[in-house]
Amino acid sequence: MWRHRVTFSKVTPANIIPSAQLRSFEINGDHSNTSLELVNRKKDEADEREDVVIQWQEKLFSEREFEAYQDSMNCTTSLQMKYHEDVHEMLKKFGGRLNKRIFTYVDNDSLTSVENISSVTTPPYVNETSLAQKMNNLKLLNMKKPFPNASGFRKRRNIVNFAPSDNFKTDHVITTPHKTMKIMIDLGFVDGNEITVHDERLLCEIQLDANGSLISKPDLDDSEVHTLETNYGVRCVYQYTLKHVSSKMNTEEQEQEIRLINELYARHQQLMASQVGHEFYPIVQSNELYVYSFVEIECARNFEYDNLYVQYVLELPDGWICFNDHRLSGITHSCSMNKDSVAHFSFPLEFDLSFQWNEGEGVDFMKWPILYLQVYSLDTWQRHRIEGYGYCQIPDVAGATRVQVNMWRPKGDSMMSEVQRYFIGGTPELVEPSYVREASNNQSNQKLNKFYFKTVTTGNVILKLNTLFQNRVSDDTHGVAPNVNSKWRKVYSRKTGAFAAALDPLTHVFDAFQKARKRMLAARSTLPLTT
């Protein structure tokens, strides 16, 4: 149990200056010899000194409170009624209150929220700064906050304030809820006209916050003597000391406290986990690249039929994975074109991708994901028509970009296919959407010939792409990809994430040409000059 010893005394000449007395003594039978001897003066210990041991949140009544709470008419709240019962019980047992000048204000008392009862260290002629005044206002507001219960957690509350007050707008300092206790001294007296002069001074203020920190102002140091002065016609000086006299915990109590603290932290972790959640992406490794792509299908323009919708699918090459596989394909809402033949979709897409390679091997050739688009139209007779095919590669450089995807659709061999498209909606379609970019047979992996393939150019689709890269590869080292082509090394040094070796076979052709050109120049330099 926390205990606080307060020793209070009045400084008088009897405490400091000894008195002088004449004493007679005998020399050779002569009793007329005298000497001056210093003797300490006697003092009334009951009136001049008070020693009180106070526990945490222990209520000691002042003389003014003791007289006020004796009458039930002065009690309006339940707390005041409890004080009324305590006062009458003290009158029955002890005939009055046991304390004299020292009394306390506990956390439930209204006066504990008053900061400037009296200052211990600040002289009365020193004015408070604006910062100190604002902090005092915050402490007053903080008294309204609920203190944590026994489990250590406050109830959930809405952290959004939809109607902030003027005080809330100006004071943005976060304070921790706390309980307060004030140890006071009553230096009042009754003057010659039998008028009571009240003078309550603050001796010590103790705060216990929600984090378990105990703060005492001033510090608990029994070697330091604090002084108070009054000047009501006669100057009086008082001294008091503060000492921490709590009993030490035994081994069993210490073990119990450790268990309670561990349980408190465990419950706090469970609460934080329930509020934050567990579904987080794994930390990127040294041989991984995370690509976060946010795509918006902005609009579609200049298509033949109205009431358009877009079907999309994202193709992942070897080595790529997606954390949200259910978002790799989908369909947008239908949208009608305006008078400018533009259908505004503003349909958002989000792809969380990851590419992984072996650390011991290089990345000579890296394919990036491809987004395939198919635009359809739907008329009032529920006839679906293909309006165009197109594709777009996910950008290999972080940042925002706007891409226009030109669309086309297959054309039949005869006029019958166009007539069929107009009346019943049946039109030639591609079996595989990837045929738009690279025609190949999935079973035999053979390239298909597009020479006799007839197409019709249609409208276009506008995409907005925002790409973010995350990796652990430093700018100055490329140990994870030692075989990356020199062109992409330079790009990577300028823009994070563009460390891919090549995006299509054309890059390999350019790199091979550069190597051949260097070899040719090296061979030419060895030839003799001709005149």
CATH hierarchy: architecture of the largest domain:
Sandwich
What is the molecular shape? elongated
Would you give the CATH topology of the largest domain? Immunoglobulin-like
> What is the share of helical residues?
10-25%
CATH class of the largest domain: Mainly Beta
Structural class: alpha+beta
Distinct helical segment count: 10
How much of the sequence lies in strands comes to: 25-35%
Describe the secondary-structure layout.
Blueprint: E1 3-11, H1 13-16, E2 19-27, E3 30-39, H2 45-48, E4 49-55, H3 63-68, H4 78-94, E5 102-105, H5 130-142, H6 166-170, E6 178-186, E7 189-190, E8 196-197, E9 200-209, E10 214-217, E11 226-232, E12 234-244, H7 251-276, E13 288-301, E14 308-315, E15 320-322, E16 329-331, E17 342-356, E18 370-378, E19 384-393, E20 399-410, H8 415-423, E21 455-471, H9 486-494, H10 505-525
Antiparallel strand pairs: 1-4, 1-12, 2-3, 5-6, 6-9, 7-8, 9-10, 11-12, 13-17, 13-21, 14-16, 14-18, 15-17, 18-19, 20-21
Structural write-up:
By secondary structure, this protein is an alpha+beta fold. The protein folds into three domains: 3-60 and 99-123 and 130-244, no CATH class; 254-278; 288-505, C2 domain (Immunoglobulin-like, Sandwich), CATH 2.60.40. It is 21% helix and 33% strand. It contains ten helices and 21 strands. The protein has helices at residues 13-16, 45-48, 63-68, 78-94, 130-142, 166-170, 251-276, 415-423, 486-494, 505-525; strands at 3-11, 19-27, 30-39, 49-55, 102-105, 178-186, 189-190, 196-197, 200-209, 214-217, 226-232, 234-244, 288-301, 308-315, 320-322, 329-331, 342-356, 370-378, 384-393, 399-410, 455-471. The strands form six sheets. The chain has a five-stranded antiparallel beta sheet, with no helix packed on it. Strands 4-1-12-11 form a four-stranded antiparallel beta sheet. A hairpin with a 2-residue loop joins strand 2 (19-27) and strand 3. It is elongated, with a radius of gyration of 44 Å. The model is unreliable at 113-121, 143-157 and 475-504 (pLDDT under 50).
